[in-house]
């Protein structure tokens, strides 16, 4: 009785290698446009909720009520986390990561690869933390107190953070092809 | 040359129509918030042109840096989406009328499309990509 022998190099840090996508220049351009559009769209979802909240009026059948809940700074904290994570993962140099996750174990040594791995971890953790934080805000602030008609604020927050994450994924995939396609020598 | 002339005149008319729609969407309800849409769509082709210049500026060096081009595309995507979703946001919060929202989207789209077609037609063989 023994567990089957692992077929991977034990000197590697992670069991799974970094997924490698080969995309052409056209896909790269379209993916970059798409990622920018998704980024702006997610931000506009949050702006929409914030504008709606700041112009919210009590219902017409009870005009002297106060609006029970408004968006405050707490709603923006997950967005800030997600945006920081997006920036970190997008600004990361992919070639360091490729060497960090390469098949040969010798490439994974060195301070650059180590730092790239830590920075990637930080960025993804920030984005996941943003998503989790927006879910927390949705549940604690909008679902538990049993308001009617204000769940949209929390839902927009969750959708915004998910959209930032999808945008980062699209940007990652479209950037992971080689960037030498437009190599032009005009000297 | 007559075909080019006709195209220029047609494009000018379309551009004027687009601005007419945007300004009408503001002026009919005396609410000048949709003018932001026209501003966004006019600014939308700028990042790509600036960034393609930046990327070409250091073509002397052997390493072609595509980061500028990609950043410009990202900004373009952001600006176009902003121009499309800003009127929807304003209409959703009832800051502008729904009709003003659709008019400003159509007008901004016409303006942006005119800039695209003009630069594609007369841009000097696809030097600048928008």
Automatic annotation (TrEMBL), chain A:
Pfam families annotated for this entry? UPF0220
Q: Which range is the signal sequence, renumbered to this chain?
A: none
Task: State the compartments where it is located.
Answer: Membrane
Write down any Gene Ontology CC term.
Answer: membrane
Q: Which UniProt keywords apply?
A: Membrane, Transmembrane, Transmembrane helix
- The domain of life for this entry's organism is Eukaryota
Mark the transmembrane ranges: 30-53, 73-92, 118-144, 150-173
Main location group: membrane
Stated membrane topology is: Multi-pass membrane protein
- What family is this protein classified in? Belongs to the UPF0220 family.
Report what the protein is called: Uncharacterized protein
Species source reads: Naematelia encephala
UniProtKB/TrEMBL annotation, chain B:
GO CC, sorted alphabetically, is: Vps55/Vps68 complex
The GO biological-process annotations, alphabetized, read as: late endosome to vacuole transport via multivesicular body sorting pathway
The UniProt transmembrane annotation reads 7-30, 71-90, 102-121
- Localization of this protein: Membrane
Principal cellular location given in the protein's record: membrane
Query: Could you tell me the superkingdom of the organism this chain comes from?
Result: Eukaryota
Q: Which UniProt keywords apply?
A: Membrane, Transmembrane, Transmembrane helix
Is Transmembrane helix set as a keyword in this record? yes
- Membrane topology value: Multi-pass membrane protein
Q: Which PROSITE patterns match?
A: PROKAR_LIPOPROTEIN (PS51257)
Similarity field: Belongs to the OB-RGRP/VPS55 family.
This protein is called Vacuolar protein sorting 55
Q: Which organism does this sequence originate in?
A: Naematelia encephala
């Amino acid at each position: 009785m023994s567990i089957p022998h692992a077929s991977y190099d034990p000197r590697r840090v992670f069991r799974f290698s970094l997924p490698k996508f080969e995309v052409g220049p056209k896909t790269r351009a379209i993916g970059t446009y798409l990622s920018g559009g998704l980024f702006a769209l997610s931000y506009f979802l949050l702006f929409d909720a914030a504008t709606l909240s700041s112009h919210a009026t009590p219902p017409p059948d009870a005009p002297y009520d106060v609006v029970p809940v408004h968006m405050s700074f707490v709603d923006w904290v997950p967005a800030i986390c997600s945006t920081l994570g997006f920036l970190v993962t997008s600004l990361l140099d992919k070639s360091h990561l490729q060497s960090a996750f390469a098949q040969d174990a010798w490439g994974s040594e060195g301070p650059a690869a180590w730092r790239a791995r830590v920075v990637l971890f930080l960025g993804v953790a920030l984005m996941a933390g943003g998503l989790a934080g927006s879910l927390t805000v949705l549940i604690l602030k909008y679902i538990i107190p049993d308001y009617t008609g204000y769940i949209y604020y929390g839902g927009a927050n969750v959708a915004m953070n998910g959209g930032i994450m999808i945008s980062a994924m699209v940007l990652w995939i479209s950037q992971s092809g080689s960037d030498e396609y437009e190599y032009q020598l005009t000297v | 040359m007559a075909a080019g002339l006709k195209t220029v005149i047609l494009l000018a008319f379309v551009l004027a129509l687009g601005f007419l729609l945007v300004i009408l969407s503001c002026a009919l309800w005396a609410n000048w918030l949709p003018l932001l849409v026209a501003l966004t769509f006019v600014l939308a082709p700028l990042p790509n042109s600036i960034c393609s210049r930046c990327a070409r500026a250091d073509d002397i060096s052997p390493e072609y840096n595509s980061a500028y081009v990609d950043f410009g595309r990202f900004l373009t995507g952001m600006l176009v989406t902003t121009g499309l979703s800003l009127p929807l946001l304003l209409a959703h919060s009832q800051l502008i009328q729904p009709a003003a929202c659709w008019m400003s989207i159509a007008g901004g789209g016409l303006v942006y499309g005119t800039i695209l077609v003009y630069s594609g037609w007369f841009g000097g063989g696809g030097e600048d990509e928008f």
